[in-house]
Amino acid sequence: MKCVLITILAVFSLAIVAFGGDDTAKVKKTGSDAPEAEKKMEAEKYVKRQADNPEIAVETSFGTMKFELFRDVAPIHVDSTLARIREGFYDSLKIFRIIANFMAQTGDPQNRGSGSAGYNLPAEFSDLPHLRGTLSMARSQDPNSASCQFFICFVRLQALDKKYTVFGHMMEGEDVLKKLEAVEVKVNPFTSEKAMPVEDVYMKKVTILKDIKKAKPEN
What we know:
- The protein has helices spanning 36-43, 75-86, 174-181; strands spanning 4-8, 13-17, 24-28, 55-60, 63-69, 93-94, 97-99, 103-106, 134-137, 150-153, 166-172, 185-187, 194-197, 202-210.
- By secondary structure, the chain is of the alpha+beta class.
- The termini are far apart.
């Protein structure tokens, strides 16, 4: 099954392919082109949100990006992501959908936008904004339909705020993000959207750099 999330940009429409049924959620996109000052601010050295939050490394075809996962904001999504990483779920999956000035999507075991981990997660929407480098979960029209697919924002995406679960942010890897955004794409035969990389792009390996801090056993 396939589900599509549609974000309407200022001059054209884009579809975020997730999983599940054939529902469509439409949100009006305003101002996806972040001002230069804002882009510069987002590219500056990242300051970690919370010291105890876990960290992961995503090794791609273009290099490695490191992310803080916001367990203080989206604990269910983060715990699910960490569990899948531990079992190697994300290793060798394609970054199957790339749209410049928007986002890159991955995490689908079917590598085309219609797969899931076999379960859904309840929404954990927050006030955190979608900025360049933000990790957010793909979903269908049902707010509680996220599973394993996620996207990395290339720009400020205000229209997605409080509608998708933000669960992390890039700490290192701006050079990799730039290379991802510049990938040449072609029409995806499964979705008819021009967003499939001409040459396959992979998450070669996803590893946990800093795991959840386990509570000490009571005496």
